[in-house]
Amino acid sequence: MYFCSMILVYPHKQGKEGSTIQHSINWALKRYPNAEVYIIGDHVRGYNNIIPDARSSVRGCDVTHKLLTFARHIGDKFLYMNDDFFLGPKFNEDIVLSNGNLMINDLHAPTYQEACQNTMDVLKAMGCTTINFECHQPVMMDSQKLIELFNSISWDGHNHFVKSLYLNYYQVPHSPGQNLKLGSDIKKAQQLLDLYGSFSCSDQWMRGNTQVKFLTTH
Fold first, then answer.
1. Residues 77-94: what's their mean pLDDT?
2. If you average pLDDT over every residue of the chain, what do you get?
């Protein structure tokens, strides 16, 4: 478990329908009351905001730019967060979830398939495993290791999964799990909190009054 002050890093881009980031931060600070919160990207009042060194219209590249901005300017180990991640009291940052191996799924959006293929290609070229870490779960990263990895590969302009690249390359121990991303099922959210200590919600979640109340009163 993490006994030093936790650092939470959010690569942030404000969506058209608003954001769940304040709810996510509120939950995370209940789990880690002394955590430092860094927002890389669009400004969120009341926290450490950093303008990224670069931006990209390619989602995976934009996220990586933002994480590398933190790594280069602040450094240290950090918990990579998204604005739709919610941490409960049972969340353990030492447990990393995996879900089989990366594979192309025709049901996924073309941009997701592209990111998946690019990630698999890079990992195979480096002789790494291609385990699927895209479980919508916060994970710990080391700034120096992140910099070293992305300095060694050609990634800018090519969509990719930063989490699966990092965790496979550094052979981070993991446990079989499942995708923690939900639509609007509150019962399922509670089950995931009990099992894994976290869940992730889709845009659909914020359209339901009961679901929003769950975030504000849980």
1. 97
2. 94
In a domain, 197, yes or no: yes
Largest CA distance in the chain: 48
For the chain, the domain total comes to 1
Side chain identity, residue 66: K
pLDDT(208) > 80: yes
Total Cβ atoms within 10 A of residue 59: 14
The CA-based dihedral angle spanning residues 49, 52, 56, 62, taken in that order and rounded to the nearest 10 degrees: -70
- What is the CB neighbour count within 10 angstroms for residue 183? 12
pTM of the model: 0.95
With respect to residue 89, please indicate whether it lies within any of the assigned structural domains: yes
Q: β-strand 139-142 against 97-98: which pairing, if any?
A: unpaired
Share of the chain above pLDDT 90, in %: 88
CATH code for position 22: 3.90.550
pLDDT digits (tens, 9 = 90+) for 106-152: 989 999 999 999 999 999 999 999 999 999 999 999 999 999 999 99
